[in-house]
Amino acid sequence: MPKRPFTAQHRPGAAPSQPRGNRRGAERYDVVIVGAGAAGLMCAAEAGKRGRRVLILEHADRVGKKILISGGGRCNFTNRWAVPEDYQSGNPYFCISAMTRYTPQDFIDLVEKHRIPYHEKTLGQLFCNGSSQEIVRLLMTECERAEVTIRLGCEVTEIKQNGGQNNRFSIETSLATVTANSLVMATGGQSIPQMGATRFTHEVAEKFGLKVTPGQPGLVPFTFKGPDLEFCRELSGLSIPCVASCNGVRFEENLLFTRRGISGPAILQVSSYWNDGEPVRVDLLPGFDLASHLKEQRLARPKAELATVLSSLLPRNFVRAMCETPMGGTALNNQPINRLPDNALDSIAAALKAWTITPSGTE
Q1: Within this chain, do residues 168 and 291 fall inside the same structural domain, yes or no?
Q2: What does 14-78 look like in DSSP terms, one character per residue?
Q3: Average model confidence (pLDDT) for the chain?
Q4: Quick check: 353 and 362 in contact, CB under 8 A?
């Protein structure tokens, strides 16, 4: 927490708005939003446009910290083809309702309105051409136009709801006490504790008697132990296009070896469907008939070693590692390809088309 919290007013250069006091001297707002991330800022802008007097409370010293690191610093701000079925929820009707009211195209239109150049990557993913800061500026501009007040370095210490007819929320903070007709908790989940993520919103929900579903990591890299971890470390930084599948779902994108295990878009997606101890299957050559190719190469290049043939299809370092100290199965039998019968080539193709790995956990 900063020693001298900064209070950002809704209009740069404007004098601080005067609190609307009540009998206890608390400031009065129509809506108080806890959290100045993407959800909090967007919610505040929309509420302000509808004539509500809105206050955002943020414990950090700046807004949108997760936005700034998203997409490798370029912010993957939406997916052009996102549909409700892409989301996991105990209440699928919520996703339908939310995405019908505000579609990916609605946000694309907002990005274009602010003249932010962007580009499309794999499978409809949209990224800024410049930096994630452009999306933060967009959201801050929308909040400014909606006359939203943002207070940084402001820690919420207690939340209560008054009884009686007004039933207002009373929010105690490190800077002041505020009250509101509506309270929005937009602090996010526990995904990045290093950035201050906590269970705070869940604890508030539990305090008010709301049912809280136990959470589990999602969109996270897989970790490994022992020889499998050493395998990953040797290949750290290497990316391979693939299809990763688990529990009946599959995602086609890249995997990425890291110092702790395996990450990359395909792995992050499939991690949301993975349970402890379960295997993950990876097709390292999606849409390619590897068994037939190997048999053709046996005729065309009979003296070529298996590793040489495979290295024309997969990264050389990966092929070498799979021949020497394999991960998730038996070592590939590297020898001249003409010494390998059909059943051996079929087994090799199966090992790479359905490479089976069992993570020890997630980050």
Answers
A1: no
A2: PPPPPP---TT--EEEEEEEE--SHHHHHHHHHHHHTT--EEEE-SSSSS-HHHHHGGGGT-EEE
A3: 90
A4: no
Q: In CATH, what number is assigned to the domain containing residue 314?
A: 2.40.30.10
Which runs of consecutive H residues, i.e. helices, occur in 62-210? 65-69, 92-101, 104-113, 133-145, 200-207
Residue with tokens 């997969």: 314
Among residues 181, 207, 233, the one where a domain terminates is: 207
Residue 125 within any structural domain of the chain? no
> What percent of the residues of the chain are helix, what percent strand, and what percent coil, each to the nearest 5?
35, 20, 45
CA distances from 272 to 193, 195, 222 (A): 19, 21, 11
Task: Find out whether 37 and 67 touch, Cβ atoms under 8 Å.
Answer: yes
Question: What does the pLDDT average to over 121-137?
Answer: 95
Please give the residue range of the domain that contains residue 294: 222-362
**306 vs 17 pLDDT, higher one:** 306
Answer with the one of 175, 207, 239 that is the final residue of a domain: 207
User: In whole angstroms, how far apart are CA 144 and each of 9, 90, 287?
Assistant: 9, 35, 50
Q: pLDDT tens digit string along 88-126? A: 888 889 999 999 999 999 999 999 999 999 999 988 999
DSSP 214: P
Residue linked to tokens 């996010």:
188
